């Protein structure tokens, strides 16, 4: 199956997403967000097939994280998870900065559909 990177400032969300994705047969690497400048190196080292990230995080927001990840691996599919309904996020989707936006609360069926579409 796929190698998926999960980035979230919430340990609970990292755990729940990792557990769900592993049950689907994926190899999951989860980490807490950190400074933007460290993301390309992590992506190069891990070489994920997909990145799932939260949007609102205190150190590095999900859009910045997606941009940094794609600077290391252009074309990397990115799913942005958010409870925010900011029009700027839709603009990021339209410009291709992220592949898909999933609004919280997260439903497993929606995530499964996204995985099938992007992997």
Please summarize what this structure is.
The chain has helices at 11-23, 39-46, 62-72, 87-94, 108-118, and strands spanning 3-7, 27-31, 50-54, 78-82, 100-103. By secondary structure, it is an alpha/beta fold. β1 (3-7), α1 (11-23) and β2 form a beta-alpha-beta unit.
Describe the structure in your own words.
The chain has a 5-stranded parallel sheet with strand order 2-1-3-4-5, with helices on both faces. The protein is of the alpha/beta class and 119 residues long. The longest helix has 13 residues. Helix 2 crosses helix 3.
Throw out a few tags for this protein.
about 120 residues; globular; Rossmann fold; about 45% helix; alpha/beta
Topology:
Blueprint: E1 3-7, H1 11-23, E2 27-31, H2 39-46, E3 50-54, H3 62-72, E4 78-82, H4 87-94, E5 100-103, H5 108-118
Parallel strand pairs: 1-2, 1-3, 3-4, 4-5
Helix pairs in contact: 2-3
Question: How many distinct helices?
Answer: 5
Instruction: Output the strand order for the largest sheet.
Output: 2-1-3-4-5
Give me the CATH superfamily: Response regulator
CATH topology: Rossmann fold
**Which of globular, elongated, flat, extended, rod-shaped describes the shape?**
globular
* Count of distinct strands: 5
Low-confidence stretches: none
Mean pLDDT: 93
- The total domain count is 1
Oligomer: single chain
Q: Please report the distance between the alpha carbons of the first and last residues.
A: 9 Å
What about the largest sheet?
5 strands, parallel
Helix/strand/pairing category: alpha/beta
Could you give the order of the helices and strands?
A: EHEHEHEHEH
Strand content range: 15-25%
The CATH class turns out to be Alpha Beta
The CATH architecture comes to: 3-Layer(aba) Sandwich
| Helix content estimate | 40-55%
Tell me the Rg in angstroms. 13 Å
């Amino acid at each position: 199956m796929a190698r998926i990177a999960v980035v979230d400032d919430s340990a609970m969300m990292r755990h729940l997403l990792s557990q769900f994705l592993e049950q689907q047969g994926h190899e999951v690497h989860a980490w807490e967000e950190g400074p933007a400048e460290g993301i390309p190196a992590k992506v190069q080292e891990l070489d994920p097939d997909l990145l799932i990230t939260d949007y609102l995080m205190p150190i590095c927001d999900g859009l910045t994280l997606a941009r940094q990840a794609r600077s290391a691996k252009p074309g990397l599919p990115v799913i942005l998870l958010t409870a925010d309904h900011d029009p700027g996020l839709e603009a990021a989707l339209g410009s291709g900065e992220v592949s898909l936006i999933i609004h919280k609360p997260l439903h497993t069926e929606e995530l499964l559909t996204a995985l099938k579409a992007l992997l």
